[in-house]
Amino acid sequence: MQLNGNQIVNFPYGNDIKKELKSKFDVIDEIHEFIVEIDDFPIEVAIDLCFSGRSLHAEYLFCITEEGEKFTLFDCYVMPMQYPTKQIKVIWNKWLLGYHVTNLNKNNIHRGDYLINLKKKDWNSNILDQNNCYVVLDGTVTITIGDRTYGSKNDLIEIAIETKEPSNISAYEKVLLRLLEIYFLQMGFFPKVEKRKYKTARGEEFFFQEDFAAYGKTTKANIRLEYALDLQKDVNLVSVYDNWWKLREIEVVTFNLYAYTTSEKNPVREVPIATCIQCLEGYFRRHHSEEMYKFSKSGKESICKEILEIIKKSSKINDICGEEEINIDDLSKSVNGLLGHINERSLKEILKYSIQRDIMANSIFQYEQKTKGIDNVLLFDKFINKATGHRNWLSHLMETKKRFNGDEIELANKKLKLLFRITLMIDIGLQVTKDSLDRTVNGIDQWYKGHELK
Description:
The chain is of the alpha+beta class. The chain has helices at 43-52, 169-187, 237-250, 253-260, 270-287, 289-292, 297-313, 315-324, 328-338, 347-356, 359-363, 366-370, 379-391, 393-396, 408-428, 434-445; strands spanning 2-12, 18-28, 33-37, 56-65, 70-80, 87-91, 94-97, 109-117, 132-136, 141-150, 155-167, 192-200, 205-209.
């Protein structure tokens, strides 16, 4: 989108002086900078800025188009192009159309309307059924899926959000972001927010333009999960949304890291795989902590206490400490630290649990669980062993044969990304159809026709 600017009401002239500036300029979404013509910019300010390499910062600039429409630019930097100054460059971060406001989050929003670009894809998505209304978050938020239009390149859908009580823009964008994350899990990419229109509690309407939230740049093709998955007909979006909201309140770093490492363009191809394995491990240790224990916490405490008592009472251990000049208390602390994880599952056990706990996750590795390599070892055991070694690769410098390498990286990347994705979907109740999951897995397993997991 492009605006033809004609006036800046509060242009900074330095020394806290602001004046009206009339000059033609174009504001274009993709460029984020423009040049204005100026005749009376203070000489001393221009000299200071030009020779110091600094710029004037303006939290907001009130602008007006040639047609007299208001818009606001936020987080702007103003710098002279030369001395004497006839032109000034303005760099801006985000903009709002139809309204002059100093602080966006001080405005109470009553409704948000969004146009979402789903890209042109051949898949069925009952989670995006149009003309459906969902009341989520204990009745405080209403999400309405509106009309859907198809073009030669785009697949657009309208989404409206209303809150029971007026909220600020950040609250509205968080509601939408959580919905986009659910779409990401189902469709395999982040939909792009094309347009945003807000209505204030006073009935004022305005448009907001900028890269959306944390995932503004992830709408590009390099952030993807390869495959779209169809959902079962009885999926309850209200329950799914509420479950995802609760999960994301405590699940922040792991999911964000996973989402940003779904690119295959990393110059070190092994890194996204190691990161994905760590994300999976961290997720289960936190969100399935009870299942990760081999025995009770009280049992662990009793065992640790007994072992430490044995160390202190053992004359032989005390003699060795005396000979080696080891402080017995320091030894006890060291042993106590080593005992900290005695009742927790190992990474290998976590990987097996994550796969075998649910029929959807298990189906990802059906081929490996029934097929042996030329050395008569199950491919499943090979995959788990390599995944374990791959996570330890950077810190332990594992041998090549103990981690994924070469052509195996392609297989491991797709299998592990799909496993973590399905894990999240299972935990929030986003059930996919068997046919679409089998189709996805069969596509990945074509790798075995020309390669061998060594």
